[in-house]
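anyone seen this seq b4? input:
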Amino acid sequence: ADAVAIEIKNAYADFNFANLQWQIGTQGFADATGGFVYNDDMTGLKINYRADNYVASLRWIRWYEGYGTTQFGGEGNGVDYDAYDFIFNYKAGNHRFAPFITYMRTNDGGGFDGTAGEPQDLYFIGINYALKFGNYNWWVNAIYEGGNVDDQTDVSAYVFDTNLSGKWGQWSAFFRFSYVSGDDDTTDNDEEGWYLPSGKIGSVSNLSELWGDGKFDVTKPMGSPGKEPRNWMHVGLGGAYKLSKAWNFKLAYWYLNAAQDGPNSEDALTDTNIGSEIDLWATWSIMKALKMDFIFSYLIAGDAIEGQMPAGTSTEDPWELGAQLSLKF
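predicted toks r here
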């Protein structure tokens, strides 16, 4: 018979001693903010200490593994990229705080948008805060990134992301504002754009369906960062109605912008206005473990998209229509 390759996604050891948990190996790693710094499968170590109202987590992550002598120059170990992370997740009544600090380093940044043989040092300081009051839920992410690339380029970037949602019987609604700084001038030695080393990127879900590379996760319009946090300022407003146990409907409107534009900006946009997107979902719960999603998205393209289109390319507004069947077992 034809050979079939079997891929093992995760393989790690899990040790538990009273309140202390150790996990070492290839496993899923997600930061405290839902993906602005990292959200991927990587090899590393998690040490979690669990108490009644808090969890303290210390992590080492091999962001990238160097091999032998590489195309980046030097020994492979010099190209290793490591991340060290501490998260303190504290809950007090209806409040939850998760401050964190992450430090990343490589001795050879040649494969990571830097110069071969030159180091990179990055750090991230931030907090995730959540509050539940009555029928409402509010959360906010605030992160500052600093560091240095090649001992020449200073990194100074930030993220602010907040969401307010409410539920009243069969109805629910949300409002979201998300800002990720962009670099206004790529020719200078200051990097104000949100910078993550090549090889792994942040991954943020629950943004717009078409521009944000949503449920289908196959392709996205030209110029879209997809789920990668980079140079955006988005505002979203939407609501949902649960018609019955089997049917749920959701409508969302997104006003999409870039944080920076200009000929020397990181995306060389002629305008910050990406456009507006309207998303409509209908979910049919066929049975407990089986559901069907019907999705329609329409993007009213702004000047930022139209300015990037090559000559002769259609500038008609893109739209998406599809269905997805999901089975959980």
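DSSP finds one helix and 16 strands in the chain. The mean pLDDT is 86. kinda curious what u guys think
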